[in-house]
Amino acid sequence: MENSSANGSEKNWDHKKVLGAEFYQQKTLDVARALLGNVLVVGKTAVRIVEVEAYCGSGGVFDPASHSSRGMTPRSAPMFEAGGIAYVYFIYGMYQMLNFVTDQEGVAGAVLIRAGEPIEGHALMKKRRNGLAQKHWTSGPGKLAQALGIKPHHNRASLLGPEIQVFQGERPDAIFVSPRVGISEGIELPWRFFIPSNYVSNVKENQLAKPLRLGGR
DNA sequence: CCAACGATGGTCT
DNA sequence: GACCATCGTTGGC
Fold first, then answer.
1. What are phi and psi of A167, to 5 degrees?
2. CA A92 – C1' B5 distance (Å)?
3. Measuring CA to CA, how many Å separate A166 from each of A1, A64, A144?
4. Which of A4, A84, A120, A169 is 20–30 Å from A161 (CA)?
5. In the complex, which nucleotide's C1' lies nearest to the CA atom of residue A94?
């Protein structure tokens, strides 16, 4: 049987420590790295975040890959709001991408949530992922959004609940860095971050990745 | 294992 | 009309 944890009913993350608005309103790159290892809960499903990418706006290095790079548009408007809400967009005609808006109001920034390890709601995720093997449920941004049931109405939803929340989880031992995946500009910027996991996407590219920091925090 | 390719529709110039 | 912050399938090793 698929079980949510080795202990049966006991949750394996700290249900008391919800990441607050102050967390998301830090600089985008800091939020991206700090998100690794935390627990993303959407409805009856939950995953441990293992891979993210940062997309930055004004302030610091210009990011040509960001949706905010050519100014505010109807789609990218949420990226300019204050950190602490979701930015959900539709791409390739069939997939939703789940991002967390970061930084202060007026400063564009978001973190794409690319992969996670299933923690809760295994049966529901399997169903949403068309009965595929578990390793294919959440090992990429389109797959993850589908497994979590992310829909267009989640755009601009609060990350402080009730629909979406992130709880503090175990700090990772190591963080790895690489270029971002699937973009044509800004490929020199090492703004993809991940921790060792079978659910990290794009295994081939991981060979090029470098360790950023050892010892967590 | 892995490279190539088609699906499919919103967004922006 | 071109471009996608992708994925599943196919066909070759």
1. -105, 150
2. 14
3. 26, 28, 15
4. A4
5. B8
Q: Burial code of A188-205, b = ≥16 C-beta within 10 A, e = fewer?
A: ebebbbbbebebbbbeee
Helix H or strand E segment including A39: strand A39-42
The set of residues with CB closer than 7 Å to nucleic strand B is A 67, 70, 73-76, 89-94, 203-204
Looking at the DSSP bridge assignments, the partners of residue A89 are A97
Locate all alpha helices (DSSP H) within chain A, ordered by sequence. Answer: 21-24, 28-35, 122-128, 141-148, 203-206
Residues 6+ apart with CB under 8 A from A189: A61, A63, A65, A179, A180
Say yes or no: Cβ of A144 under 7 A from any atom of strand C. Answer: yes
Instruction: Report pTM.
Output: 0.92
In the three-class reduction of DSSP (H, G, I as helix; E, B as strand; rest coil), residue A88 is classed as strand
**How many CB atoms sit inside 10 A of residue A125's CB?**
26
SS3 label, residue A205: helix
Within 7 Å: CB of A45 and strand C? no
Q: What is the pLDDT along chain A (217 residues), one digit of tens a residue?
A: 334 444 444 566 677 799 999 999 999 999 999 999 999 999 999 999 999 999 998 767 899 999 999 999 999 999 999 999 999 999 999 999 999 999 999 999 999 999 999 999 999 999 999 999 999 999 999 999 999 999 999 999 999 999 999 999 999 999 999 999 999 999 999 999 999 999 999 766 665 666 665 444 4
